[in-house]
Write a structure and sequence with these properties.
- With 571 residues, this protein is α+β, with helices and mostly antiparallel strands.
- It folds into 3 domains: 372 residues; 82 residues, no CATH class; 84 residues, Sandwich (Immunoglobulin-like), CATH 2.60.40.3080.
- It is built from 10 helices and 29 strands.
- Strands 7, 8, 11, 12, 13, 15, 16, 17 and 22 form a 9-stranded antiparallel beta sheet that branches.
- A hairpin with a 4-residue loop joins strand 25 and strand 26.
- The chain is globular.
- About 5% of the residues have low confidence.
């Protein structure tokens, strides 16, 4: 079990829980989880925050690479979002969750509403869920509608009950009404531009061409929070998504669109948003952290070539045989105070688990008061002091040089930082959020497998993380990620597509012990033009019929759920 020094913290939470047991109208902590598992990770998401927290300490929220059992080593033990700022009276308001799991956990499921209030226990219980949809479901739905302008086939609940504005089928699917709030809910394609989500009119979820996505919403006003801070009255909506891609960098990544709305009656100024991580890269006791400020990237690597203590043992926690290197990349920061420009990282700092031996430096331990959380958000220590560079200059960014430059650069490698369990926080700000105003940001988790350790060169990770922000337009670079598979890879997995270029017939062939399930052909603008399904053969021939001359994308799915795509030219 992971030793993350929560005994005193949880005792404090337990006392608060006793104090609040009489407030039956208050929200209970969210317990629902959902997974993203379409790419090379199994990522567990939480209805009252970001990545789920396992109290036993044995199961990471972010397993990489994905395993059939879900019991492999992970990159992230848990993580969440922090927000903090001041009202115009100078009062600090804060929403910041770490490990709390009881009713004072800091975030509660569902949207922030005034009537019924967000502290209504039934409202929070109804929204203790996450909404998952697969890209193939959306493709099949679009094909059905485009065929004759109406829906003829049964619509999966993932699309029928998608939590988008005004959905008339939401209540029939889930049994409760979706409130009508400014700012909307889950993103969708509006077929007739009426502003209302109606799947029977051809509307469908927008997930940026991803293979799988999860959307959910939570807020900070459902109960007394774990640090007795004044709540912001903030609502947070997240779309998390992954791509099953032949491009290794994308297949190893996950993406997060975060929208946050001030649902209160007062503006929040000097506001910062933070991404907080307990990033246990396999074994939690031997991880190092660095940052590339100009790249808006915080990264994590193993302190040595062996993950764990001695021969890799880690007190029951799964460790890596070959530890990877991974980073959190801010792809698009929130808007600044004036709403004119996107912000980059304001700071990237870390602090030690309070239970480490020897004790960490002053100001580098777990925060416990609201102002200590806010100080971390602004890039300062919890005692109000500045973090310092080796030249004794104040800085908001810790360990900013490539670890590979261990002799001259400033990194945990060059400093030979004490090993021990650490927490990181990258933050963006300052911002101002008026009542009803929203802001948004997008970040990604990116992995570089098998770096040379110790003191790895992070250049390859920086290059892997240098990607555009995914969008919902058909010409964005993420919509055709799986095209162009090499002949070597095709041969390795036993698939042949020939002739290419083709004139009248396209032959798809698998090894004898495999079978096709579905074959799809797309135009280069993303429109599905041919689908052959319910296949149980290793040899399939698709006729050209009325397809025009040009380049098409084929997408193959086998009976064992393997997916392969590529390009075919019709002469």
């Amino acid at each position: 079990m992971k030793n993350f020094h929560l005994s005193v913290f949880l005792s404090f939470i337990f006392i608060i829980g006793i104090i609040n047991t009489n407030h039956a109208q208050f929200c209970a902590a969210g317990t629902a989880t959902e997974t993203l598992d379409a790419a090379n990770s199994t990522i567990t998401l939480s209805s009252s925050g970001l990545w789920a927290f396992d109290l036993s300490g044995n199961t990471p929220a972010y397993e990489w690479p994905k395993t059939a059992t879900g019991e492999g080593p992970g990159l992230i033990f848990t993580g969440n979002l922090w927000f903090g700022g001041f009202d115009d009276g100078g009062n600090l308001k804060l929403a910041a969750k770490t490990y709390a799991t009881d009713d004072s956990n800091g975030y509660w499921p569902g949207p922030y509403t005034q009537n019924p209030p967000s502290s209504d226990s039934e409202l929070c219980a109804n929204w203790d869920r996450l909404f998952k949809v697969n890209g193939v479901e959306i493709e099949d739905f679009r094909t059905d509608f485009e065929d004759n302008g109406q829906i003829d086939n049964p619509v999966p609940n993932s699309i029928l009950g998608w939590p988008a504005k005004g959905n008339p089928f939401f209540n029939p699917v889930y049994g409760f009404e979706m409130p009508d709030l400014a700012g909307g809910f889950a993103p969708f394609y509006d077929q007739n531009f009426d502003g209302i989500y109606d799947p029977m009119a051809g509307d469908y979820p927008l997930i940026k061409c991803a293979d799988q996505a999860v959307w959910w919403v939570f807020h900070d006003g459902g109960n007394v929070n774990n640090i007795n801070a004044n709540p912001i009255s903030i609502e947070v909506q997240i779309l998390a998504y992954v791509y099953n891609s032949n491009e290794e960098n994308i297949n190893n990544a996950s993406f997060y669109d975060v929208k946050f709305i001030n649902r209160g009656v007062e503006p929040i100024d000097s506001m910062f948003a933070g991404i907080w991580l307990d990033a246990d890269l396999g074994c939690p006791v031997d991880d190092y952290i660095g940052t590339a400020p100009e790249e808006n990237l915080t990264y994590f690597y193993n302190a040595d070539a062996i993950d764990g203590e001695g021969s890799g043992n880690c007190n029951g926690v799964q460790s890596y045989e070959e530890p990877p290197l991974f980073g959190v990349k801010l792809l698009e920061g929130p808007l600044n105070r004036e709403g004119t420009d996107r912000l980059g990282m304001n700071s990237s700092i870390f602090y030690f688990n309070g239970g480490v031996v020897p004790p960490p430096p002053v100001g580098w331990t777990d925060p416990s008061q609201a102002y200590e959380y806010y100080r971390f958000l602004t890039g300062r220590r919890i005692d109000g002091g500045s973090f310092m560079t080796p030249n004794n200059e104040p800085t908001n960014f810790l360990y900013t040089d490539n670890p590979a430059d261990a002799s001259n650069g400033w990194s945990m490698c060059s400093e030979q930082t004490a090993i021990g369990d650490k927490r990181s926080l990258m933050s963006m700000g300052p911002m101002r959020l008026s009542p009803g105003q929203s802001n948004n940001m997008t970040f990604a988790v990116v992995v570089q497998p098998q770096p040379a350790l110790p003191c790895p060169d992070v250049s390859a990770l920086i290059a892997a993380a240098d990607m555009p922000v995914p969008t919902n337009t058909l010409n964005n670079s993420f919509c055709n990620l799986t095209v162009g598979i090499s002949e070597e890879v095709m041969a390795e997995i036993g698939i042949s597509v020939f002739p290419n270029p083709a004139t009248d017939l396209i032959n798809f062939q698998l090894s004898e012990n495999e079978s096709f399930a579905t074959i799809r052909l797309y135009r280069m603008d993303g429109k599905l033009v041919r689908k052959v399904e319910n296949l149980q053969s290793s040899n399939v021939t698709v006729t050209r019929e009325d397809l025009a001359t040009g380049t098409y994308i084929y997408q193959i799915q086998t009976q064992d759920a393997a997916a392969v795509s590529g390009k075919i030219i019709l002469k």
